[in-house]
Write a structure and sequence with these properties.
The chain has 129 residues and is mainly β. It has one domain. It has one helix and nine strands, in the order E-E-E-E-E-H-E-E-E-E. It has a five-stranded antiparallel sheet, covered by helices on one side. Strands 6-7-8-9 form a four-stranded antiparallel sheet, covered by helices on one side.
Length: 129
């Protein structure tokens, strides 16, 4: 499917993502944020509806910060919300605390300085551990 995504990252508050995918007559439309997830087929049949609870907020917060670190490195400039931790030669960790949420994100950079991997533990209510 051809897919178009527009996302706005607004550190430290969150993000809004709008997506559209299409293959022939089949269309999938939706949006996602720290507050809601709404996706549907053709704008008529709901495929995923979620939001408004702590589980969704924790999962979205993790995704948001992992993407902010990778796509908007300025999001991790010095701030009262951030703690930087030393890593190895190619990896650094930042821990973000905002409102009642905390997330650690590890970023690995290639020898040329480009980010090559972002890793984080994402909240899921599917596994209480």
């Amino acid at each position: 499917m051809t897919m178009e995504v527009v996302q706005v990252l607004a550190a430290p508050d969150g993000f809004v993502c709008k997506m559209r995918a299409q293959s022939g007559h089949l269309r999938l439309l939706g949006s996602d944020s720290g507050e809601w997830t709404r996706f549907g087929l053709g704008g008529v049949v709901p495929a995923a509806l979620r939001g408004g609870d702590g589980d969704h907020a924790r999962a979205a917060f993790g995704r948001y910060w992992a993407e902010a670190v990778f796509w908007s490195p300025a999001a991790v400039l010095p701030s009262p919300h951030l703690v930087r931790e030393p890593g190895d030669l190619n990896t650094a960790r930042v821990t973000v605390s905002y409102r009642d949420l905390t997330q650690s994100v590890d970023v690995t950079v290639a020898p040329d300085g480009q980010p090559s991997e972002v890793a984080f533990h994402r909240w899921s209510n599917a596994n209480p551990a």
